[in-house]
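Pipeline run #58 for the internal structure catalog. This entry was flagged by the ingest filter as a single-chain record with no existing model, so it goes straight to prediction. Upstream metadata was stripped on purpose; only the residue string is passed forward. Reviewer on rotation: M.T. Logging verbosity set to normal.
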Amino acid sequence: MEDTDVMIESKGVTRSFPLGGGREIEVLHGIDMIVPAGKLTILKGRSGSGKTTLLNLLSALDRPTQGQIYWGEKEIGKATEQEREYLRRKDMGFIFQAVALIPVMNAYENVDFGLRLAQTTEKREERVKECLELVGLKNRMNHMPHMPGEMSGGEQQRVAIARAIAHKPKVIFADEPTGAVEIVQQKS
């Protein structure tokens, strides 16, 4: 694989967490992996095996205890917090295991918020509507995700998916993204 084909690479990544009393638990040990550009990469393992921890490291939400993680040529573990935040806002989309929508915003505003964070200025309204239509929520964009009876858990997760794809990120990190999503049939 040529270097230009590598989107993310980890080398010897270890992540430990303190338990108290001076003890630690090592969740990941010596992880070497390559995430190729333009390809679907799936992390598979049982509950508690460290998949979410690894996603948090690869997406610059956390730093490894040891080892390096590269985004292209840049080692993101050594990047400043401002550089890491910029990378997350511009080049990454996130779909979390627990729906992470802003409770005081309706579906449209939640998707638009992602575009504003990515500093997208052109055709924002059109893109928000397009993304909500893609996830089957064209007629629900004014509904409040966290108001009882307005949106199901699956609909909330579809809003989160729309927000994650809206700014056309280079990578989408998805942690069990369809766990609460019901099947939606689109009319042709």
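catalog note: The mean pLDDT is 90.
catalog note: The longest strand covers residues 6-20.
status: ready for reviewer M.T.
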